């Protein structure tokens, strides 16, 4: 192994950023022989055939040159049309949409574009653990708001209190349906949050990548209420089982999108041609694909909830996404890490410790039911045997 020259240093900011707790734990248990992993948010479905064919055709047609930095105009038009249909906001494909390398890049580009040193970002937790490291890399600081006592939802009262205590807050990050809990916000709840955000002159970065995977409820985008303040993020990883295509998008008012587009170009130049061709097909001819996945996920959700209940494990009933956030057995107290390790090494079932998702996650574990029916049945059997 090469040794770095002892007269060279590196970024203290990067050194102080902790790697994803989800990935750290997954790497730790992945080498256990025979383990069933319910750790990552990775759909076990295949990308629809017609979407794959579009990517193949793109390659065969030598679609292999630099695309426009903001993404192919045909794709930006498809995204604009899709968002107009689904959330009722008409984004100009020329100036208000940027195609990104997954939603991850979109989150980073947005934070780099809107924050200055000293700005704070409000982040309700438990939530996907990317947001606060991304804020740190963007030279902002952050405030984590524990939502456990409010059924894992950010309330307008809690947000107002947080803003009063932290007057340099520049933006609020929302992710819903939420990873890891699967909770959705009602229309009234979103309206109340939008009112507080507008009254306090804030941005909202709204990550709605799971919005097509909802069960028996309606999804209400906050971007439809305060489009002048909203930076909308989504992608095709979850809706079309396209995680490996790394295709996301971000939309917002032209003035801020100019800055976001600039950051995006400096980060990655542009996204892959074949992935964009697949995305065009998905958005133009595959809007019903997610409905088929949704039926499968809902059946799995109900099965896992039933089995957990039989084991005596309380869980949040998710209204979206493909995760269940379950309270660990009482004998473990709040030590979700030890419970997850014991479950992995003794029962060969991998789940993610809730503490990886920030304050309020302690004492819980996240199970992904984006796994095969056979895997879920066996995992539940192993968990039941372990708990007995």
TrEMBL record:
The keyword Cell inner membrane does not apply. PROSITE patterns: AA_TRANSFER_CLASS_1 (PS00105). It comes from the Bacteria. Its cofactor is pyridoxal 5'-phosphate. Pfam families: Aminotran_1_2. SUPFAM superfamilies: PLP-dependent transferases. Residues 35-382 form the Aminotransferase class I/classII large domain. It is an enzyme of class 2 (transferase). Keywords: Aminotransferase, Pyridoxal phosphate, Transferase. GO terms for biological process: amino acid metabolic process. Its EC number is 2.6.1.-. Gene3D superfamilies: Aspartate Aminotransferase, domain 1, Type I PLP-dependent aspartate aminotransferase-like (Major domain). GO terms for molecular function: pyridoxal phosphate binding; transaminase activity. The keyword Transferase applies. PANTHER family: AMINOTRANSFERASE (PTHR46383:SF4), ASPARTATE AMINOTRANSFERASE (PTHR46383). Belongs to the class-I pyridoxal-phosphate-dependent aminotransferase family. This is Aminotransferase. It comes from Lactobacillus helveticus CIRM-BIA 951. The lineage of its organism: Bacteria, Bacillati, Bacillota, Bacilli, Lactobacillales.
